Amino acid sequence: MAVTIPTHRYTSDAFAALENDRLWPRVWLLACSVDHVASAGDFHELRIGRISVLVVRGDDLELRAFQNACRHRGSSLCEGTGSGLSELRCPFHRWSYDLRGRLREVPSRRQFGALDNYSDLIPVRVDTWGPLVFVNLDADAEPLPEFLGAVPDDCAWARVDEFRCTAAVSIAAPCNWKTLIDGFSETYHVQGIHREMLAMCDDVNGPQHVWERHGKLQQSYGVASPRLREPPDDQQIWEAFVEVMGVRVGNYAQADAGTAPDVPAGGTIRSAIAGIVRDRGVEAGHAWFSALDDGRLLDMSQYNLFPNVTVLVFADMMQIVRARPGATSDDACMDAFSFERVAPVAERPRVKPIDIELSPDDELPVGLVLNQDFANFGRSQRGLHQPGLTHFVVSPTEECRIVNLHKNLEEFLSISPSEIGSA
Ligand code: FES
Ligand SMILES: [Fe+2]
Q1: Which of 134, 135, 300, 356 has the fewest CB atoms found within 10 Å of its own CB?
Q2: Closest residue CA from atom 3 of ligand 1
Q3: What is the pTM of this model?
Q4: Within-domain flag for 146
């Protein structure tokens, strides 16, 4: 039976205020990559709704996080991302803290008397999974490994520790953060807005799994969608693969696919494309690629981490999309993180990723598919505001990861599940 979800969850500032109070301060949040804060003195700010958290690598190389608020009159201490800090100095009246968050210096300190209980920065819990840094403002929340549950083991084969973040692109999006992340929680929309993918991916039969908090889709590439009445030939599958993800076979322009690779007798174009990914991986120093089957080499494992992150794991690359709420329930920010696999891991120093902030009018350097997703956000959000549309309808199977987001949201916000009805 179809599931209905109230649209006001996506359009009401009162609902966004509830999320500000009960969700963001209580859940594990992806803050940045380890590469953003790899060296002593590196810092990175996570801003999400009204929350601002600073992740800081100390001179003892410990990773710490603090609420970004000076203990004097509350000013934020740092913005964005950076390196080379030897202290955290408030720009307002110049109180300063060491990288462990301890108050170090107060101009005209004698004027204040004793400051013992109001001195150090307010700590935030911080932990990592692979190349990802997570923070949680709730001292009582479950530890990160418990929160992530089965996800790390499920993709242990992909050795996510070997991924390094190379770039993070942030773009303001004209929609609610859930409109944004829902776009990465189902592939039912491939036939709608990513029609180029139909000749190179099975958008219908990919198994989905829902854990308590998180979700997963496994999707096959190098095969045609069963939705196509006229099955494409090998050349068409190859051209579509290059158009959508040519970087994986060394075609960085993702144009001019050329002639499809030879398919040996009894073989498939999928196997031939997987062979290219295998050879490129082995050449790049990942000898273990030679033992991976075609599915591992080509297919996508998409994880949906509650509440606002999707992690796309491939043998040869990883991408992350994070949705952050903006100033109103109609504003969000899309952050797209790119990762590449390095080998040998121990010999590759971590380099600060390139962080790019774009306006929606800029040409988005995020690839064909993400651009198509982005173009859809405003259209989706506008429709959700129409007064007759009090609820929308989702499939409990095809869109089970969206249903799961709402179940978890209800738990965090302590709102009645009865708000979700059946069509
Ligand atoms: S608010 Fe930071 S020193 Fe005054
Ligand atoms: Fe999409």
Answers
A1: 356
A2: 93
A3: 0.96
A4: no
In a domain, 145, yes or no: no
In a shared domain, residues 116 and 235: no
First to last CA, the chain: 7
pLDDT tens for residues 122-147? 999 999 999 999 999 999 999 999 99
User: Are residues 33 and 22 part of one domain?
Assistant: no
pLDDT at position 62 over 60: yes
pLDDT (tens digit per residue) in 153-190: 999 999 999 999 999 999 999 999 999 999 999 999 99
Residue 288 C-beta-side C-alpha neighbours within 13 Å = 11
Residue list, ligand 1 pocket, CB within 6 Å:
70, 72-75, 90, 92-95
Distance CA 377, CA 354 (A): 25
> Domain tally for the chain?
2
State the ligand closest to the CA atom of 75: 1
Q: What are phi and psi of 85, to 5 degrees?
A: -70, 140
User: Cα(241)–Cα(256) distance, rounded to whole angstroms?
Assistant: 11
CA–centroid distance, 184 to ligand 2, in Å, is 6
Element holding 10 (H helix, E strand): helix 8-11
Residue ranges making up the domain that contains 2: 1-26+151-423
pLDDT of residue 361: 74
At residue 267, φ and ψ (nearest 5 deg) are -90, -175
- Residue type present at position 382: R
pLDDT range class, residue 419, cuts 50, 70, 90: low
Mean pLDDT of the 267-282 span: 97
Question: Which numbered ligand comes closest to the C-alpha of 69?
Answer: 1
Cα separation values, 195 from 47, 220, 418, Å? 35, 16, 36
